[in-house]
Design brief:
- The radius of gyration is 35 Å and the shape is elongated.
- It is mostly helical.
- The chain has 32 helices and no strands.
């Protein structure tokens, strides 16, 4: 058995064997107390009178204790009683003022234990916070004194596992006194952890529970705001994050990353020199586990929600290397792997980096295009394809380099077209495709993508018809090739009959008009009754005399009329067109 000074369910082992012995002694005293009161059960189910009496006895012992040993016994008894997750018990502890008692004790201890203090050294004064190293010098400390501080903070952490309402009451009552004490304890004991290279002794337990308490308070509505009024807040949290323990405390790391991720003053965090590299290195460290890597990514993702951050963070090559490494992690179904959220957050962060137009060339040139290739591979592997495709769409809209990289992957263009049909950012995908399509060399690929984009009458179809017009403007040879393709003609005919999307109707009619300008195309067009019927239908739908809201109908009718006139070259063709006009007028 081990004493627990962390959250419920976690155990941290004291370094000396005598603490094990002390545990059994205190357990005996605890059970004896309950025996005398007719109960052998830990009072964790409800706030009974018996439990309250037992709880009060701990703090009476603490207040009446004359020596450090007596106080430690009282604190250990409190830990044994309160170390559970029953919020009702913790609510009672807050209501009875135990937080104030412990806060007063902590203040007294920190004032008296001057031998435990040491000055922090900074590896770079320009950072604004201390980056701890193993070379730091600190004085010898008295373990018993630090043990009492650590156990006092442990009880404080335990009783604040209460409901949010009581946590708010306690915070409003004692934060002005408690928060500076927690920061002082962190700054005092962090050098001891580094110097003695240990994560299982009392200095580490003290720091860990200080961080957890700050984490609890940060979840409150006014938590970050009031915490930030204490100047050391952000600096101390970054200072702890810079610590690289041999065996990481996952809970403390989770709290730190949660603090930084929810920190509301992102501009302030962004302005800290070296902060981004510190967050990245926390995820890259040899001691980093999956949770730490994900925590780093989430912190960076939250910063990237700032447009200013998107433009400045892209200049950090370490950041790009980190994202690329995370995006290359295996991506498997959620049932098989726990890192699915890490991939999601990394892909989302990459998408945000791609958003500003100014970032496009930097990202496309980075490491000979590895960033773009990584996103393309994600889309092809159907791994976080949604965010990856959106990022590529932004790049395609803003960079010729990106477009050239994508054009070499026809299979990717297919997937991008499907993304444009189903993705919530499909408007961006459609715009990207409209810029890619005119440069596709394979006419078969081009036609296939156009057909995909015309499945729905929306901005995808708009982008498709714009791409057709742009392709036709390339050369006479291209127009002749397109006019000879039955699939392309069929697409345009369907578009001219789309009266719900009048923009598409007018642009498709314009495309057919461009065909009629080429002598080699006229015979093909004149011999196609469907085209002639479609043009006549457009003329009949002109809505002449109606408001300017029908301007697309007017434009379509004008294009169709000119196209029909271009096709009237002899008596036979004139009669053919006249027959169609008469037939479609009924």
């Amino acid at each position: 058995m081990h004493l627990s000074y962390s959250k419920a369910g976690e155990s941290i082992n004291p370094t000396a064997y005598e603490y094990e012995l002390k545990y059994f002694c205190q357990l005996y005293l605890y059970l004896q107390f309950h025996f005398n009161h007719g109960s052998y059960m830990f009072p964790v189910n409800n706030a009974t009178e018996e439990a309250t009496t037992c709880n009060d006895s701990c703090f009476r012992l603490l207040q009446d204790a004359q020596t450090a040993e007596e106080r430690i016994i009282a604190l250990e008894k409190a830990i044994l009683i309160f170390n559970h997750i029953e919020e009702i018990e913790h609510n009672c502890a807050v209501d009875r003022g135990y937080g104030e008692i412990l806060c007063w004790r902590l203040q007294t201890l920190l004032l008296n234990n001057s031998s435990a203090s040491s000055s922090l050294s900074s590896s770079s004064s320009s950072l604004g916070y201390s980056v701890l190293s193993e070379d730091i010098e600190c004085e010898e400390f008295i373990p018993e004194e630090v043990e009492e501080v650590a156990k006092t903070i442990s009880v404080l952490e335990i009783i604040h596992r209460c409901t949010a309402e009581k946590l708010q009451e306690s915070f409003d009552s004692i934060h002005a006194k408690l928060i500076p004490l927690l920061f002082e304890a962190i700054e005092r004991y962090m050098p001891l952890i580094i110097h003695y290279n240990s994560v299982n002794d009392w200095p580490f337990i003290a720091v860990s529970n200080c961080v957890k308490l700050v984490g609890y308070f940060s979840t409150l509505v006014n938590g970050h705001i009031l915490l930030d009024r204490h100047t050391p807040y952000l600096n101390v949290m970054l200072q702890v994050l810079s610590f690289r323990p041999r065996s990481a405390d996952d809970v403390m790391n989770d709290v730190l990353f949660e603090l930084l991720s929810t920190y509301p003053f992102k501009h302030k965090l962004l302005s800290k020199d070296g902060c981004i590299d510190l967050i990245i290195s926390s995820g890259e460290s040899v001691n980093s586990n999956m949770e730490m890597r994900e925590g780093s990514i989430v912190c960076l993702l939250n910063l990237l929600e700032l447009e200013e951050a998107q433009k400045t963070m892209v200049l950090n090559d370490n950041l790009l290397v980190f994202f690329i490494a995370m995006l290359k992690e295996p991506c498997c179904p959620i049932a098989e792997r726990r890192d699915i959220w890490m991939n999601y957050h990394a892909a989302k962060a990459a998408q945000l980096l791609c958003t500003p137009a100014a970032n496009a060339d930097k990202l496309c040139r980075f490491e000979n295009g590895v960033f773009v290739r990584t996103l393309v591979n994600l889309v092809m592997a159907d791994c976080e394809a949604w965010n990856a495709a959106c990022g590529l769409c932004h790049l395609a809209n803003n960079s010729d380099l990106a477009r050239n990289s994508m054009l070499h992957r026809p299979d990717f263009i297919d997937i991008l077209a499907k993304t444009a049909l189903s993705n919530s950012n499909r408007a961006i995908a459609a715009e990207a495709l409209s810029k890619l399509l005119p440069n596709i060399d394979s006419f078969d690929t081009y036609t296939r993508i156009i057909r995909l984009m015309t499945i729905r009458s929306n901005f995808c179809m708009n982008a498709a018809v714009e791409a057709i017009l742009e392709k036709m403007s390339v050369s006479e040879k291209t127009r002749i090739l397109m006019a000879s393709d039955d699939s392309m003609i069929s697409i345009l005919i369907e578009m001219t009959r789309n009266h719900k999307n009048t923009y598409v109707m007018s642009q498709a009619t314009k495309a057919i008009l461009l065909f009629t300008l080429e002598d080699q195309c006229k015979d093909k067009i004149r011999g196609n009754q469907d085209i002639l019927c479609a043009l006549c239908d457009v003329v009949r739908q002109a809505k002449i005399g109606e408001s300017s809201k029908c301007s697309d109908f007017h434009a379509s009718a004008a294009y169709a009329t000119v196209a029909l006139c271009n096709l009237c070259v002899d008596v036979e063709s004139d009669n053919n067109i006249l027959t169609v006009l008469i037939a479609t007028s009924y």
